[in-house]
Queue: 3 jobs
Job 1
Amino acid sequence: MTVLFADVVRSMDIAAVLDVERLREIMTELVERSAAVVQRYGGGSVEYTGDGLMALFGAPVALEDHAFRACLAALAIQDEACGLATEVQRRDGVTLGLRVGLNSGRVIAGEFGSGSLGYAATGEPIGFAKRMESVAPPGGVMLSESTARLVENSTQLSEPEWVHIKGTDEPVRAQRLVAIGARESHLGRAEADLVGRHWEMGTLDALMDRALSGHGSVVNVVGPAGIGKSRVAREVAGAAARRGFEVFWTFCESHARDVPFGVLSQLLRVGSGVNNLDDEAARDGLRVFVPDIDPQDRLLLEDLLGIADPNVALPQIDPDARRRRLTAMINSVTLARSEPALYIVEDAHWIDAVSESMLADLVTVIPRTPSLVLITSRPEYDGELKQVHGAQAIALAPLDDSDTATLLAALLGSDPSVGALSEIMADRAAGNPFFAEEMVREFVQRGVLTGERGHYVCRTDVSELSVPATVQAAIEARIDRLSAPGRQTLYAASVIGARFESGLLTALGIGAMFDELLGAELIDQVGFTADAEFAFRHPLIRAVAYESQLKSDRAQWHRRLAAAIEESEPDSADENAAMIAEHLQAAGDLHAAYGWHMRAATWATNRDISAAWRSWERARRIADALPDYDPEQLSMRIAPRTMLCGIAWRVHVNIVGDQFEELRQLCNSAGDDASLAIGMAGLVIDHAYHARIRQAATLASEAWALAEGLEDPNLTVGVFLPLIYAMIECGEWHEVLRWSQQVIDLSGDDPSKGNIIFGSPLAVAHTARGMARYSMGRRGWRDDLRQGLSIGRSVDPLSYAAANSFTYFGGIPTGVLRPSDSVIREIEDALQIAERSGDDLAVANVRMALGVALAHRDTDAQRDRGQQLLAEVGDIFVRQEHNLAELPIIHVLLARERSRRGDGDDAIDLMRSAVDQQFRDGPWLLWNAAVTGVLVETLLEHRGPDGVAEAEAAIERLTGGADDGLAIREIWLLRLRTLVAHTQGDSETEVALRHRYHEMAQSLGYEGHLDWAEAMEQARA
Ligand SMILES: Nc1ncnc2c1ncn2[C@@H]1O[C@H](COP(=O)(O)OP(=O)(O)O)[C@@H](O)[C@H]1O
Ligand SMILES: [Mg+2]
């Protein structure tokens, strides 16, 4: 057992300044806090000693790690004392200090018989602890030699000093406790020296050099299980630490693959030094780590780290914006860091998808920092982290024969009796060091090898020996040899994961047998707080332990674990939903698992759409596997599918195929039109984004009719945005007018009515009605557009972005609106808002609006910027496969800039194909007039009379043989015919047409056309 002795430094001024009453108050406080600490770390009886206290660890209950626990308690008591001292200093103006001494030894059981030791107890170990206390510096913890020896592997101690204590003449050895050993250093793990891996270590060393000079890199260390990836990482970590790098470890786990954000948040917690703190302390720590960030950004970061205050609402922003802002913030923190850091991400083949893609973004700044990122993975991993631009790759090959021989010699020793066995093992291991080690352990446990590690003797005839065929077989044999309770512990732990805390096993009702497992080198202890943390020595051991149990037993563990996780962190149930769902699914509780997947998806919708998508997908698969007679099967199959179809376009998943048809059939058999309408709305967007405008519009009409038929205003209004988008693109102005009118009526005064998909359908309804009205030559459109913008602005950033982009990229190229200074400012403003809070699509749309507006300005500088923006969004549209229907207008405007720069012929070619594209789905579409207009102008400008024939054909195509008197088309026809007449030198016709053009522009209030008409007149004057 270990004795802890703590005493207040009784300086003169304490006695002089404080009255008895106050002194007692302070002492009571100190003793109470310390007693709580002792209890927390499993200490036994606590004695009050007048000026301090004494506590025992390891008695009366035997604790194998009593010395270590006493160290933890000692440091924690000093922390408490420190806090109290600050208070006392402030209030009473005196300095309070505490000394702590520790000593370990055997105590005769009888001494505890009375239940109280009495301060006067003078057992030798107790007296010695008091002596240690007396030589400790104020604020310090002094360890006797016996205690130091027990904890030297798990703590950091000062150099030994020789101190004089009362009662002996000889000085005695003592060491000061500095800190608890680093959690990741695999304390006390006995390892053979590293063999081979010379060039690998050399390369990594060189990369460290480069990092130190400010040029960091990302390195992938790749190889099969057991080949030595983690070992290389540990070696690098050691070398890096010696060279001044701070080292941060993160571990991906096979069972957490579907738990979004897990790995990233772990890495960030470790990197910001707030790991292992409770949430509140972690938030404080984060405040110190990143002192000046935007308060909203701080909330996002806390949420990402899983340490958010549940009582504070998250900013209402789109997941895309959240990601943009988090990435920007983390990158700037990474870039600002001037000390070298090594980030290790272990076993990336198990990384969750969200962490993976965010991390791939984050590491792009590493080359500009003094940092290294080392990622280990198995060869089958081919994800984004492997493809990071400029990343190095180190593939670990099997050890060669001589390295294997060296390794085996180190493990077995050089007794001649092990020679033959060593050869067999070398052959079997095939250069896999882990297999070699496991075989050695297996033979030792079987009794084939006897003696000490590194000095074994083999008494068995090797020709009669069965040698494990695979590393799994070796592990299995070792597990079989455990006692039943030991095996039980290992099995339960394997269900928790590669790392597990003792507390969770207790919650599973396991009387955990860690000693046996530690002794068998199946697990290591990696965390030494009150709730000890362990890790499987290798992921394969966990995998074998997991696989080799009966499925039904395993299911039990999973079920209990799900309950334990839910119970232990009731505040984090949403955050843990994905994990709970996995366990329940593995337990075979399909209905419950389904519910948790759906819950996880809802949690993720505000954080990452693709994560939400994955959870719905998992829910869908569960539902599909349910038997037909299950009464809930149908509705369970519909719900996730509805969401999947509804959002598929946002994660670029093509649902045109079976997914949607299945949803339709299921909805039909359930009579569930509402779900069908929502799923359909998603499909409409998907069609529209892929420029299948006709199909989009047809389906939109069907969905609208369905929604109308349900007479549920929230639903009708709710599906409006995607449907109206298709109709606008298609130029179906009568329908646009009718539907938007309906939404305006159904919404009443509520700008947020029907906000299922989108904040303010009403805002867009006004914008859409405005567009329909101006296209059809009706009055009131200007007020409509204004109102759309102001309602959008009052509701949320996304609604504003939508109203803004519809208004301007619809209005400017068609000549309805003028790209005035104030309009440019307004769009710039909307862009900022969208970047802060909107999804990537909203940002792209507003950028397009800005590009379009700038492309219609007079100065070269503005048009250059417009051109650049349009080129960029065009690229994004193509790459991300959305807004493809907008490509023709973008290409035409870009080509016009080319022609202005004198590249007329190429420009015309580009325009022709863009116009063909634009007309592929019919003559009515939104952009038809504008693109035709640019082509005709350019033809006439560049070719003069030679361009007339083609210009006329283009104009004819725009009429589409129709005579519906659509104002927007009429005015373009007038304008273009005026230009043709001018080019032909037919001035009579020209003047007549020009007047009509001017008048029409005036009466309709089309600002752009008015400007153009006036410009024509000035040119002819
Ligand atoms: N080059 C080496 N020299 C000595 N021991 C090694 C070497 N490579 C791996 N080992 C040992 O083999 C075992 C498995 O290695 P590990 O790094 O965990 O494999 P991986 O991470 O690739 O699955 C570890 O105990 C490790 O110490
Ligand atoms: Mg490993």
Job 2
Amino acid sequence: MPPASRDLVGRALSPFPQWPGDARLALSFVVNVEEGAEMSLASGDERNEAVYEVNREVVGAPDLCMESHFAYGARVGIWRVMDAFDAHGFKATFSSCGRCIAATPSLAAEPARRGHEISAHGWRWESHAGMEEARERAVIAATVAAIEKACGQRPVGWHTKSSASVNTRRLLMEEGGFLYDSDCYDDDVPRMHQAAPRPHVILPYAFDTNDMRFGPGGGFVQARDFSEYCIRAIERLLKEGASAPKMLSIGLHLRFIGRPARIGGLEAILEHVAKRSGIWVARRRDIAAHWATLV
Ligand SMILES: [Zn+2]
């Protein structure tokens, strides 16, 4: 039997949203900021990160090649990504790892200055599955503190890399200050967390409309592979959204989409969206706040 916490019923329990301006689709761009939070022996971690432009783990010694690949996102990619959003005045959610922001506060301060949301993406770039509870509590608190210090505002959103633990959502409640989390892949609309003592919204995220598929084995090669795939999802949900409004997340990574041959994929999506009516491009905190007042 699956655990009782699983809900495989779906839309029967979800109200259909009324987005601002009667939009048919709420569109959330999530920019993952992970550079410096990847596993690294040189940073005192138990192993090196194994996933970047290639899948290869250097064992027993610092991996300078992997470090340098991640650094590209922070040094170069972030500027291309921010400029692409600025060209249309669209605001995104920068989902940021605490260790990354503690070491390089400008990676949160500059997007915040441009009007983007800074949300929390763990301390290190790691799964929380099986993490000991006291450690996970400390990880959440440290991530919140690093972001608050860098941009003067607590994050209200959380997303765990890969799998959350069975305790994550409860620990977010205990930490306080959170309005939503994105540890959810099972719907095209948000929902309220029923067991929460105060309003907490669960926003769906996606691994398919995501530039991580430029990575090894992911299937995206050319910039248009990404833009065509995402535009297909946008158009499908716009159609369905005429009767039942929808939400879509598009995931981005500075070190992937920020490469010169790939940034055009994001630009093509933004240009398409700018010409289309019925789309509410919003930060996740705005979608969550809107949803929390609806239901
Ligand atoms: Zn991520």
Job 3
Amino acid sequence: MQTRMCRVEMLATAVVHQIKLVRNEYPFCGPPLFKEPKKRSGYLQKQGGVQNNRGWRRRWVIFNGEDLRYYTDNKTCVSKKILPVSCMANVVNDIKMEDNRKYRFKVVTANRVYIFAADTLEENHLWSSTIMEAILKYKPPPDGIKDGGRMHSPDKEGFVKIDGIKNKCFMAIKKDVLCYYNNYEDFIPDCAINEIQMKLASVKELGQTKLQLSTHYSQFVFTFDNAQETQDWKIAIEDAIAEGLADDTVLKKVMVNSSNQWCADCRAPKPHWAAINLGIVLCKKCAGIHRELGSGISRVKSLRMDTKIWTPSLIGLIVAIGNENANNFWEFDMLSDMEIESDTTAQQRKHHIEEKYKHRKFCRLHPKNANKTALNQELLRVAETDDVLKTMQILFSGAEILYHRPGNDGETAFEIAKAAGQSLQMELLYQNGGDKIARLTDSPTFMEAKLRSTVRQQGFMYKTGSNRKDFLRRWCQLERGSLSYFLDDKTLNDAHGVDWTTTAKDSVGYDTMLSLFTTSTDKYANSFELSTTKPGNRLFLFATDFVEDRLSWLRSLAKCFCPIWMMDQMDNYDFSFCGYVYLKEGLTQEWYKSWMMLCGRMLYFTSELIEPDQLQEIDLRKVLHIRLQDTSTNHLCLEAGPCLVIDAGRSVYIQLDLQRDTEKLYAGIQLVSSSESHKLDDQQLTTNNIPVIVEKCITHIELHGITAEGVYRLAGTHSKITKLLELFRKDARALIIRNDDYTVHEVANCLKRYFRSLDDPLLTYDLYNQWIDKAALEDQATKIQWYQYLLNELPTVNKATLKKVIHHLVNVSQHEDENKMGINQLASIFGPALMKLDSSLPVSGQTGFGYTNREISLMVDMLKFHAQLFEMDKSELEKKQKLEKAMEKLKALSSTRPVSTVDSGFIMPVYVDSPQGDCITLQVTSTMKVEELVELAKEKKKLPGEWVLHECVCDGTLERPLNDQARVFSITQEWQDWDEEYRKGVCLCLKVSDLIQTMHSLYEFHAPLFGELRFSEKKAYKKYCFEFKQSKLTCYKDARAANKIGEWEVEKLSIFHGVERRRNPPTEFGFTFIVRGERIKKSRDMPYFGRSVACTTREEAVNWLAGLYKAQYPNGFHS
Ligand SMILES: [Zn+2]
């Protein structure tokens, strides 16, 4: 504000000097002429009250040469009053030397006097002279000042209550300006309270009689007398906003067709909306109804506001078709009593428009409309002519826009029009969804084709024929969105200026490109495949001499068919796959088309769920599971054939247009995600950036061997260690270390060997000398500072892994009494293992025992000072504490149940048939999955057939089938949140469940579930409405779904089949659920387990359970 004041004041001062100067030089020449009106602004005192009988207030006043406005302060943009010069009769100085406010001046208007006071005499003169000059200079319009001044004859006027103003105001809108006045008397001289420029405003309804107008600086709430008035004002305000934003350029061009000067439906004058797919111009009211028809019938755009979409060919189309030609078709059979007029009611208007366009009641159908094939073929025939009206008739008589003749290279009408250079035909077909590619990429305009044609590349590549064996050298040319190849570059040069398609051996248009894969062949390492929709879904195989050339071609080709916004980003990606896929995130979501790229171990894709023009990523190193699933059995997909499923926290389902491409992508992803590389960075990682192999070995040792004497010192069987490491390398995530297969020492040695087999040691070669140097430092504090510095120099994965290892070793050393492995022993093993490799040569030519000693002492330091060097963040600490607690509680649990902990894992009793049945005790490891436990149990008891593990509570009345892939340990961990009584009563039970058999037959159940069920949250059952959709279970008070009683995300629920008998359920059919992670209490207020839902029949209960379980286990209990 300060700068604003300064600038204005300097201006004012300059003006004053100028006045003096001019007046001195030309004293008799009348008032001087200034190009710019004089302006002033500053704080003045103003006397309040219409009669000037109230107190004085400090006001920020701006005089802009045309009007004087005053405000509460210089920060607000909402004025208290606007006094146009046209209403001012005089300015009178009124110096009152005896008063506090001596330097007054009065602005006199026709109906009121406004009194201001400046702080100094000079200020007073400046203000009064500036205003006086403007009054003298003011020239009224030749026909006199009319009522309302510039707001004379407004588009809308009336009284309104405005929030913050005591009395009702008079409000007027004209063009893009809204003004409100204290009363109608103030409107006559145009003395508004405030003026709002509508260009950047927006309006919304707040209930029936309120409107809220928002600008960037303030909000105004208007209250009207009734709903109708509110609607009328809303329309007027919207019109004013539109007026502010309007641009009449397009409108003028479209009016070249004079029939467009009246609405195509109601003949209202000055229409400024268009239905671009129909080629007609509409009034605002009719446009609103067209919009309700849906974009499949009418695509409404403003001719004045949506200016960006108006390409020359689209304008050309509206001119070529226009209202008269269109109505010759649409209203051919219409009787005059069906006509509507500009003041027809909304209901009649709607009826008319629906009859006309939706039901095609009056239109002049094409003679061939009875024969669909003939009509379709007629469309193809006319598409290459310039008769766009004929095309309109055929199209709206019901021809299929994407119809193509099989024999004619599958060209659609749009492609035929394109080849024939019929731009209006193309536009009409395009606007009605005729461009396959535009549909795919959702391109808004023909700009796409233009953009694609900016991609150019040429050069020699090697290309195989359809036998995909012999590579031939071909001159390749990528231009106009099409890849063509020629016998040689000479052919091309000879054909200069000639249409290439005649000389090219073949061309691949961007609209046929599906995906690109890098590959390598025996002959050429740098080859790639281009998958297309050309006949036979042809797969082209190209090769280049150099990898750089391949990348450059791949990028150029990708630019031809990637989403438009990706085009200029393609150069940033080095991909082994790119193309369009169908994608679904989570089972309950919808499929959508996505652009996907595989770059190294990162998978990028566009997500409609998040931000359609932003890439989402999946780090394939951190993916839990990648599988190719056959969809023929469970109809996961729209298309039959395999579906790629990536489990990365959530499941992502991917399917490509062609089965072969889905399989190729799967192979490509597998290749990069289970790399047998010896780089730390290339390993499968946990979410904490620790290689899965390291995590698994450490967890195994902590569970089974932390107290084993000589752990990490004693050797195991060499061949077994080699085997284990090999298995880890193949797929660490899939590997389960069984106690029966490997001793703790073998696992410990596997971990040591793993570190020694890396390409670069954990502490890295680069930093080796620095580590060794700093380890020799004597001052402990300095040393730790240096270590901290060096730790931060390590790559992320190295640092995270080192932290994990050190914490683990500290843990091992804390059991020294039993395992006899103290810090020194562990350091002498791990120092060299983390710093040097099996095959490593002496670093920097230096070797010797001293270095090994330093390596060891570095490791001793790290173990001793681990707390300072590797601070655990809060979440890690919490996690650790939680785990420790859980282990303790597990031990405690074992005393109340026939469970006993031994050094290696824990013993779990599993019952057969029911909690009263046979008991098998099994040894469970922390990583064991349900399916493994079931296999173990079946083996031990020689149980034939299919068994499902259940979690049983409340004497077995409540049972929950467990998914094969769930971890037994995490299931038992959840019991820690339960009250002791429930915890004592819970057990795992193997059952042959006929419920599951029944549910399998219902697994295709797709529709959302909704129904009235009896629900008991705490005690008594009451009728409520339940709904299950979009992975949420919602309970409503009534069927109108208005009052929400509760809502639960199904993923977070444990759902048990059955209802607790003690609750006195109205029926015995139903289910009980608890929210995982919530404390399951048993108290006087909550005497029963979880929340219970009772159904009327068994079928109903099974139906609900099938739906809920399906959401939880999309692939069934066995996968
Ligand atoms: Zn109309």
